[in-house]
Amino acid sequence: MRAPAGAALRQRLEELYRFERLRMRLGLEGTERLLELGGRPDRAFEAVLVAGTNGKGSTAAHLCSVLRSAGLRTGLYTSPHLLRFHERIRVDGRAIGDGALEALLAEWWPRFESERPSFFEAATALGFDHFARSGVEVAVVEVGLGGRLDATNVLTPRVSVITTISSDHTEILGDTLRRIAVEKAGIVKPGGTLVSGVRAPIARAAIEAAAAERGATVLRLGRALRYATLSVSADGTGFRLRGPSFEGVLRTPLPGAHQARNAALAVLAAEAVLAGRPRGEIAAAIARGIPATRWPARAQLLDRDPPVLLDAAHNVEGAIALRGTIAALFPGRPVAFVAGLSRDKEHGAILRELGRSASRFYLTEYSGERAMPAARLLESAPSAHIACEVRPRPADAIAAATDWAGGARGVVVVTGSFYLLAEAMPALGIGVPDDL
What is the Cα–Cα distance from 44 to 139, expressed in whole angstroms? Predict the structure, then answer.
């Protein structure tokens, strides 16, 4: 894992990515040791931890936007990135710059060599140090995997958020909703505040029991704050909200009924973080922050002929949400899916769900050993009643889907793994902005 002294940023990052291939470990001991060597930058700011099966990133982005609108200097830590590592670490919406990242890597490299962290442990240390040096007041931190043993859980959050609980990563988190819920409830700290959007009764009961054991306050979406989706269009999602400080109609720029829920959950979390401020001040921050949210590749619509929709629906719950968005945006139009998934996903169940909206599948694969080969993906596709083509190169799959959709007056939907979207975006000529 040695990179030469003074190595260029790209060399350092390439070596950092090798950490992911070498090892993945759950547990806080390694992260604690690493942060001790760095002077505990994680203690320099307040934090909100966001866990859950789906909606973590969107909820975190909405929350950060509201907190920025309230005048707080914010950090946002998310994963995975789409095109550049820098996207994971943002201060006031701006991704970490080359110079700052290069300096951090050079300073932390001897610690990485001595501690041999996982990729995520190393990335988390870099993110927390950047937040500390940047004078961040509150960081919104997306949990990587699970909760209890995730590297981000070294934080003592002011507020913990759990978005949804469904079946994913069962080989690590457990094979029942209750076991998955218990793992994610590990982010709830004694005497803290839990903001919950969990609907499944078994999972919700397990999480709220864990919170009660730790003396944590529970704010449940639908009880502490109510919302109702009003409209879904290419311009975003309108919803009505009634909460402690804000009552009225809001619009998030992110399309999809599930995004109204993510935004409402973020508002409830913002209410908890900003508690003690005047109600009018909190309401104004909500009214400004939700419409200002930006979050790429989550039902991101490219206004082209034919239209192209990008969305990271990498599990069944995500596929169901994507189908709802497609139905709202393109009722009655034929849909060509460009789909690629990782090996550890429920391929058959995801493709069957997408198949309810599909006219054709173009099955593809991203570069890397975690990708399910497109030819193998075909074995799980509902090809008996839907035309399926195997196009291993994402650019070829997108071109073929675009040709077909253009002639059929249809739409192209690129979906599945974040890693697929990372290869699809350059093929479509789009990027991820440095400023959100």
Answer: 10
